[in-house]
Design goal:
By secondary structure, the chain is α/β, with parallel strands linked by helices. The chain folds into three domains: about 90 residues, Periplasmic binding protein-like II (D-Maltodextrin-Binding Protein, domain 2, 3-Layer(aba) Sandwich), CATH 3.40.190; about 80 residues, 3-Layer(aba) Sandwich (D-Maltodextrin-Binding Protein, domain 2), CATH 3.40.190.10; about 80 residues, Alpha-Beta Plaits (2-Layer Sandwich), CATH 3.30.70. Helix 8 runs antiparallel to helix 9. The strands form three sheets. Strands 1, 2, 3, 4, 5 and 11 form a six-stranded mixed β-sheet that branches. It has a five-stranded mixed β-sheet with strand order 8-7-9-6-10.
Amino acid sequence: MKKISFQGLAGAYSEQACKNAYPNYQPIACRTFQESMHLVESGECKYAMIPLENSTAGRVEEIYRLIPKLKLHVIGEHYEEVNHALIGIKGANIEELKCVGSHPQALAQCHNNIQTLGLEMVAKFDTAGAAKDLSIMNDPTKAAIASKLAAEIYGLEVLMEHFEDLKGNMTRFFVLSKKKSLPLFKKENSYITSLIFELRNIPASLYKALGGFATNSINLLKIESYMHSRDKRSRFHIDIDAHIDENRVKLALEELSFFAENIKILGVFEQRKVD
């Protein structure tokens, strides 16, 4: 059976994303994102399912630090609706709870509900790990925020479903592959070209760098900026609503090269529609 890696323990939301996107693949749990990517680089796994951003809590910071070092290629995206559950040990009740543990992203996505219950927040390495820790501590005053799958795996009780502050809470994932994949351009389909670049040290460089996309009628779906730690230069990650084989994209990238450097195409893939 083909394998797909993810960061986290059994029961993590990333595992659920793997099962929904690639039901015929075996999900392989990894402790770190680097380990997950290494399994793909070594050929042990075909793909890695990596969370990029969440509609409530924003981007996953660690991933943006890893993206410039990527040896893998982005071959697709996947959107997974996140339904958080407030979980306790068997027999626990909400009135007894004093603290709740989970990954910082999950805590942020449930912040208002946590405040309403007056619980102390405890950051954990991941959501499934928080559930596993809770099962070991067996303390009725402690809770975890994780998936219903994690509650089942670790023998815990769901105290409250849909604990997230906002409904329709979505996490966007990148699917990474060792092999580069370029879908054949078809006018009737929608594509995303994902790339990163660094700005040259000239006045109005960002304005000029993005000008080529505007003049060639290319829609920017997202833009993220973060500082390069070595020389404090700004690095940008953008997704554009176009295929790299289109002539308008080639013209825009040519113009971009005058005002930016270290341009790297992360991948080209069909755009997924979110219900």
